[in-house]
Amino acid sequence: MTPPPGFAQQITFLYAEDPAPCRRFYAETLRLPLVQDQGGCAIYAVGGNRGFVGICQARGPREVTDPRRQGGVVLTLVSEAVEEWHAWLTAQGIATEAPPVRAAIGITHIFFRDPAGYLLEIQRFERPDWPRP
């Protein structure tokens, strides 16, 4: 049997009880272009037409409080400009967990939260084995 073809695109859907502030955050603060408004979900492009994030109306409150545990979500956006993003977010009044940190695993990153409380990371790979866009 021949395996199916590889995946062409990826969407991460995030659910918010009040999606309006999240939609503004992803469009205005993170400056992601809206590619489709489905009413209950708005889908934004991340880095072209291969990666997307969807902001959707939640059916109820989130039950997972620590996103790094089973069932949690961390949305990671890859950028060479981690320090510039840190300055931009700070200027927009968005608190980050810490200034940019270079981790032992060969990345530099920051963490912050969106209006619905999702943990986001902006990360730069310092490793030569990471595939470049």
Architecture overview:
This is VOC family protein. There is one protein chain. The chain is of the alpha/beta class and 133 residues long. The chain has one domain (10-125): 2,3-Dihydroxybiphenyl 1,2-Dioxygenase, domain 1 (Roll), CATH 3.10.180.10. Helix content is 16%, strand content 35%. It has helices at residues 19-29, 82-91; strands spanning 10-16, 34-37, 41-46, 51-57, 74-78, 101-103, 107-113, 119-125. The strands form 2 sheets. A 4-stranded mixed sheet has the order 1-4-3-2, covered by helices on one side. A 4-stranded mixed sheet has the order 5-8-7-6, covered by helices on one side. Strand 6 (101-103) and strand 7 (107-113) form a beta hairpin. The chain is globular. The mean pLDDT is 89.
CATH topology: 2,3-Dihydroxybiphenyl 1,2-Dioxygenase, domain 1
CATH homology superfamily: 2,3-Dihydroxybiphenyl 1,2-Dioxygenase, domain 1
Structural class: alpha/beta
**In CATH terms, what is the architecture?**
Roll
Shape: globular
Average pLDDT works out at 89
Distance linking N and C termini: 31 Å
The count of domains is: 1
Short account of what is shown:
It holds the Pfam family Glyoxalase. This protein is of the alpha/beta class and 133 residues long.
Please describe the topology of this protein.
Elements: E1 10-16, H1 19-29, E2 34-37, E3 41-46, E4 51-57, E5 74-78, H2 82-91, E6 101-103, E7 107-113, E8 119-125
Parallel strand pairs: 1-4, 5-8
Antiparallel strand pairs: 2-3, 3-4, 6-7, 7-8
